[in-house]
Amino acid sequence: MEEPTHHQPSAFKCGECGRSFGDEADLRTHLMEHLEAPPQSSEVSAAANPKRTGKPTSMKKPFQCDECGRKFSQKANLGVHMRTHTGEKPYECNICDKKFAQLSNLKQHKKVHTGEKPFKCDTCGKKFTQLSNLNQHERMHTGEKPFKCDECGKKFTQLSNLNQHEMMHTGQKPFKSDMCGRRFAQLSNLIQHERIHTGEKPFKCTTCGKKFSQVSNLKQHEKVHTGEKA
User: Fold this and answer.
1) Any domain includes 30
2) Looking at residue 161, which CATH number applies to its domain?
3) Domain of 136?
4) d(CA 76, CA 36)
5) Where does the record place the region Disordered (predicted)?
6) Structure pTM?
7) How many CA atoms lie within 13 A of 140 on its CB side?
8) Residue 209 zone, left/alpha/beta (φ > 0; ψ -120 to 50; rest)
9) Residue 44 lies in a domain
10) How far is the C-alpha of 25 from the C-alpha of 6, rounded, in Å?
């Protein structure tokens, strides 16, 4: 009599679509499909891939970014990626005029105005506009860190944090300041740096009205009003 086969649980879950994988490498390959391909309906996806087995296949990526070296399988996706370097934001919210580099981000943003939050955490009840944000939030409760650095073994709850961390090992700094030429590994650090040049201070104290260029400085300042020790 044959022994019953025990299947390993799918430990690695995609934050974008909820699909689960038993192997981290398969998840990371799958995530590239979200980064590269525009959203499709299930009918369109099935029609385009009638023999798809569910396991991602390797794709040729002939289109390379001159700024950071990242490669893409489609020229259109390279064009979308280039907006991270140029700062171009062609999609504008008709309610608050905020602009976005991608149409999908604009659609997600509009839920801020409608208040729609269809995804709820079973542990604490907090609701989210996106499934990926819910999955990311739930790792706070579980302590799960499915994304591991191949160089040093450090683990992360988000793939984006792993990608940023890996730049420490490679020395890659794709984001350049137009003002002084200084380069940064993360776009958020470039944005923060450019406030030195522009003088922008978007973070305002609700108690006294003082403004700051960094949210960390605002939080430190607020302790003056609360009496909390720095």
Assistant:
1) no
2) 3.30.160.60
3) 119-170
4) 9
5) 35-61
6) 0.40
7) 9
8) left
9) no
10) 21
